[in-house]
Write a structure and sequence with these properties.
Blueprint lengths: L8 E2 L10 E3 L9 E5 L1 H6 L4 H4 L2 H8 L10 E3 L2 E4 L2 E4 L5 E8 L5 E7 L14 E2 H16 L6 E13 L3 E11 L5 H10 L2 H15 L9 H23 L1 E2 L21 E2 L23 H20 L3 H13 L1 H17 L8 H14 L4 H10 L10 H15 L7 H7 L7 H14 L3 H10 L30
Antiparallel strand pairs: 1-7, 2-4, 3-10, 5-6, 7-8, 8-11, 9-11, 10-11, 12-13
Helix pairs in contact: 4-15, 4-16, 5-6, 5-8, 7-8, 7-9, 7-10, 8-9, 10-14, 11-13, 15-16
Bound molecules: adenosine monophosphate and magnesium ion.
GO molecular function: AMPylase activity; ATP binding; magnesium ion binding; manganese ion binding
Keywords: ATP-binding, Magnesium, Manganese, Metal-binding, Nucleotide-binding, Nucleotidyltransferase, Transferase
Function: Nucleotidyltransferase involved in the post-translational modification of proteins. It can catalyze the addition of adenosine monophosphate (AMP) or uridine monophosphate (UMP) to a protein, resulting in modifications known as AMPylation and UMPylation.
Length: about 475
């Protein structure tokens, strides 16, 4: 008997006004081969892993076969890229549809690298294997760290080459998301659609992500407020683990609050707020320390797009938008401090906590200390680095100990272990895994890395070797957008 993969497609996005998408199929590829598959995610989706890994199943991941019930489409959106407004859209991705699992959870199933679309502009619609493996690794690491994110179900190689600066093996990533609705989708509606189109998008978003808002007196204002809070919480989580997204354009910001589009992203080793990895981010617009501020900038673009729906009276609408945006900095600080207190084992709040945190970060910066490992050392109370013997750190540590004594419980190691990852996907490890796969067809390095980083709070013995820094941690690490 033939195994059934268990797809349960619905296509609610196609009920939006037609300007929001173009229906078309992925472009078939020559020789699809499954190279990475996420069994645990398949399970969460109630899909049959065995069926998905048959030739027939894999044909779905390559776009060579449209699964039953799917109605593929490319989504239209716009966005501010490095501050400039542009029309974009899925230039190399196709949404197969929304898979609904037995708990009635709805997931976008998207093929990334699936061929040209009307939104491809000059691009080839394809993706190279390296960047798709990178997205797989980092998104799964983020999920394991407890950070809302799109997920990765599978990567296939296409048997075709893509032309970048050189010829590279082509690949397609199957991306799973609670949706792909972006701030840029609203900017698109505001700029190119009617007020009815904009309203349809808002109603759809509320129904899909914020159904409790439907009965509000001003649901669109509430939508704005909730998205602001979701993003404040999300970006705080990035900061807390040292994640640098790298391209926080408004088209790469979801309204669901999931991290999306892993291009030139990377985790910071040595703490420095100016840390930038992306080769094209010359001015550090999206540097680690700028991410919270840029989040606010992007949300202001979201607020602008919603203005026609916030109030009949334009002036009042602008005022409401402004007031909502002004809540963002405090919300961000709230989530950040809450997370930092947990990282330090602080169970209550004291006015000086912010200074205590800032001073520790400043010391890490001055002494070029690793962000993750410093918190790891504090968690384990294992102070091996010479940094920990410096008078400045000793001073700080006395303040910290005094602070801990003023709270009820001092048994904080368990809590700290849950908030300070023992391992992150360090850049040299990610590179090593991608290189083995792309250059030698060896996926074992990546699988081992995944097994380590998808359990980041385990503090297991086998993780130790993944905690070490690259040989020259001071050398700039550069990531490329040519994804
Ligand atoms: P990203 O940098 O991945 O967020 O992509 C920004 C925009 O460029 C999106 O509209 C993508 O669909 C589009 N894009 C990126 N790479 C390609 C490509 N190879 N072919 C066509 N469109 C692309
Ligand atoms: Mg993007």
């Amino acid at each position: 008997m033939q195994l059934k993969p268990g797809w349960n497609f619905h296509n609610s996005y196609a009920t939006l006004p037609p300007i929001f998408y173009t229906q078309l199929n992925p472009t078939p590829v020559a020789f699809p081969k499954l190279v990475v598959f996420n069994e645990s995610l398949a399970e969460e989706l109630n899909l049959n892993s065995d069926a998905l890994q048959t030739e027939e199943g894999v044909a779905t991941f390559s776009g060579n076969k449209i699964p039953e019930g799917a109605e593929p489409l490319a989504q239209a959106y716009a966005g501010h890229q490095f501050g400039y407004f542009t029309m974009l859209g899925d230039g190399r991705a196709i949404l197969l549809g929304e898979h609904v699992n037995t708990q009635n959870q709805r997931f976008d199933i998207q093929l990334k690298g699936s061929g040209r679309t009307p939104y491809s502009r000059g691009g080839d619609g394809r993706a190279a294997l390296g960047p798709m493996l990178r997205e797989y690794i980092i998104s799964e690491a983020m999920h394991a760290l407890g950070i809302p994110t799109t997920r990765s179900l599978a990567v296939i190689t296409t048997g075709e080459t893509v032309i970048r600066e050189q010829l590279l093996p082509g690949a397609i990533l199957t991306r799973v998301a609670s949706s792909h609705i972006r701030v840029g989708t609203f900017e698109f509606a505001r700029k190119f659609g009617s007020k009815e189109d904009l309203q349809a998008l808002c109603d759809y978003t509320i129904e899909r992500h914020y159904p409790h808002l439907a009965k509000e007196k001003n649901p669109y204002l509430q939508l704005l407020k909730e998205v602001i809070e979701k993003q404040a919480a999300l970006i705080a989580k990035w900061q807390l683990v040292g994640f640098v997204h790298g391209v926080m354009n408004t088209d790469n910001m979801t309204v669901s609050g999931e991290t999306i589009d892993y291009g030139p992203c990377a985790f910071m080793d040595l703490y420095h707020p100016e840390t930038v990895f992306s080769s094209i981010d010359t001015y550090g617009r999206y540097a680690y320390g700028n991410q919270p501020k840029i989040g606010g900038w992007n949300l202001a673009r979201f607020a602008e797009a919603l203005i026609p729906l916030l109030d009949e009276n334009k002036e009042k609408a602008v005022r409401l938008a402004k007031e909502a945006i002004e809540t963002y900095p405090d919300l961000y600080v709230f989530y950040y401090l809450d997370g930092m207190r947990k990282k330090l084992g602080l169970l209550n709040e004291e006015a000086d906590d912010e200074a205590l945190i800032q001073d520790l970060l400043q010391l890490m910066e001055t002494y070029k200390q690793d962000y993750t490992n410093t918190f790891r050392a504090l968690t384990l109370q294992k102070f091996e680095e010479p940094f920990f013997q410096t008078p400045e750190f000793q001073d700080w540590y006395q303040r910290y100990q005094a602070r801990l004594k003023r709270q009820n419980s001092i048994d904080i190691m368990q809590m700290m272990k849950q908030h300070n990852p023992s391992v992150i996907p360090r850049n040299h490890r990610v590179e090593e895994a991608i290189e083995a796969a792309v250059e030698r067809g060896d996926f074992t390095v990546m699988k081992k890395l995944l097994s380590i980083i998808t359990n980041p709070y385990a503090y297991s013995a086998e993780q130790e070797e993944y905690c070490t820094l690259p040989e020259y941690p001071d050398e700039p690490y550069i990531t490329y957008c040519g994804t």
